[in-house]
Amino acid sequence: MRAVVLVGGFGTRLRPLTLHSPKPMLPVGHRPMIERLVDRLARGGVTDVVLALGFKPEPFMEAFPDGKCGDVNLTYAVEPEPLDTGGAIRFAAESVGINETFVVANGDVLTDLSVADLLAAHHSRMAEATMHLTGVDDPSAFGVVALEGAADGGIDRIVDFVEKPEPGAEPSNLVNAGTYVFEPSVLGLIAAGKRVSIERSIFPMLVERGGLYGFSTDDYWIDAGQPELYRAANLDLLSDRRVFDRCAAIAPTAVVSSSAMITNSIIGDNVEVGDDAEVVDSVLLAGARVGAGARIRASLVMGAVGAAAEVIGSMVGAEGVVPAGSRLIDGALPDPAAV
Ligand code: GTP
Asked: Which class for 240: exposed (0-12), middle (13-18), buried (19 or more C-beta within 10 A)?
C-alpha cells in the first residue's frame, strides 16, 4: 500500500520553532513527528510513502539519506512552487505513478487511528474517498461534516463538508482528522500543476458525487500545528493517553543539574539545565540551554534561557536568547514578525 504524506506547509503558527526546521521534522517525544506518523502508517499496512514537499526539503533528505524510515520506503516529490494540499497530492501521486487505492495523511497529525481499519471501512462501502473523522468541542477551526445517518461511529456517507464554518453554523462536531483513503479517480478531479485546496475544492465536489465517506473514531488525535497542541502532543507521551507510544522525560544525552526541578516536561538531546532551575509543563528541544535558577513554565524552548530568567507560555527558537534575569511572558523569541 502506498501513501502520500503532506509535509510542504510553511508551519507559520509554530514560528519561530519552524524558522530552521520544517514542522514535521520537529520532535514529539524525542523523535521527529514524521517518524511517528510513518510508523503508524506502517502498522496499518503502508509500505511506501511519498513525502509531498515544497518548503525546505533538505532536512528530510538529510534525516533519511537511504530513503528508508524504519521498513518503509520513502520517495520525495518536491513541488516547483507550493501547490496547496490538493495540488500537492496530485503532484506527489503522479510523481510515483499511483494508480490504485492509496492513503493520504497530513504531516502534523498524531493519532492512534488504525489505518488498516480505515482501509477496511473504505472498501466495505466501495467509497471513492474516506476521511477519518474525530469529534471536537470547537469544530469551527476545522473542516466540519454532516453525515447521512446518525453520527454514532463507524463509516457513513458525508452529505456536507464545510471548511472552517462560522462559530454556531457547524453542521456537527465531527471534523476532518487529516488521514484519508482515496481511489485514484480523485486525482482526476484536481487540476494539474495548480494551487488547489483539497479541503475547499475537492471534498465539496466529492460530496456532490456522493462518493465521500467519513470514518469516525474516538482514538487519540491531535493536530500538532499550533504551539499549545504541539506542547500537548509531546507531554501526552509522558502519560497513558497514547496506546502505542510513550517516551522518557529526559533524553540520555541531556545534562540536567541534580538540583534542577523537572515536572511534567520533556528534556531533549544535549539539553543543558543549570543548578536550581525549574522546568514545568514544558518541552526543551534538542540543544536548548537553561541557566542556573531559571524558571520555565508551559513553554517550548530551542535556544538559550539565561540564569534566573523567567519564561512562561512562550516559544524560544533556535536563535532565541532570553537574557539572564529577564522575563518572557506569552512571547516568542526571535519575534517571528521581525524575522
Ligand atoms: P501553518 O502555516 O501554521 O498554517 O501550517 P501549514 O502550512 O503546515 O498548514 P496546514 O497545517 O493547514 O497544512 C496541512 C498539511 O498540509 C500540513 O501537513 C502541511 O505540511 C501540508 N501543506 C500545506 N500546504 C502545502 C503545500 O502547498 N504543499 C505541500 N506539499 N504540503 C502542504
From this structure: exposed
Q: Would you state the pLDDT for residue 8?
A: 87
Q: How far is ligand 1, taken at its centre, from the CA of residue 205, in Å?
A: 21
Give φ, ψ of 129 to 5 degrees.
-150, 140
Same domain, 227 and 282: no
> Lowest mean pLDDT: which of 8-12, 170-174, 260-264?
8-12
User: Given the CA of residue 83, which atom of ligand 1 is nearest to it?
Assistant: 27
Confidence class for position 147, pLDDT limits 50, 70, 90: very high
Domain extent for 14: 2-238
- For β-strands 174-182 and 102-106, DSSP reports them as antiparallel
Q: How many structural domains are present in the chain?
A: 2
Give SS3 for 136: coil
Give the CATH number, domain containing residue 128.
3.90.550.10
pLDDT at 10 over 90: no
- Provide the mean pLDDT of the chain: 94
Mean pLDDT of the region 107-124: 96
CB atoms within 10 A of CB 150: 7
Query: Which of 4, 10, 28, 50 gets mutated to test ligand 1 (max ligand atoms within 8 A of its CB)?
Result: 10
Look at residue 243 and tell me if it is in a domain: no
Cα(170) to ligand 1 centroid in Å equals 23
Q: Of 192, 212, 238, which residue is a domain's last?
A: 238
In angstroms, what is the span from residue 58 Cα to ligand 1's centroid? 17
**Whether residue 190 sits in one domain with residue 159:** yes
Pocket of ligand 1 (CB under 6 A): 6-13, 23, 52-54, 79, 82-85, 88, 106-108, 225
Nearest-atom index, ligand 1, CA of 92: 30
Based on the fold, state whether residues 92 and 153 are members of the same structural domain. yes
Average pLDDT over residues 282-286: 97
Q: Do 187 and 286 fall into the same domain?
A: no
**Residue 68 pLDDT > 90:** yes
Cis peptide bond prior to 82, omega within 30° of 0: no
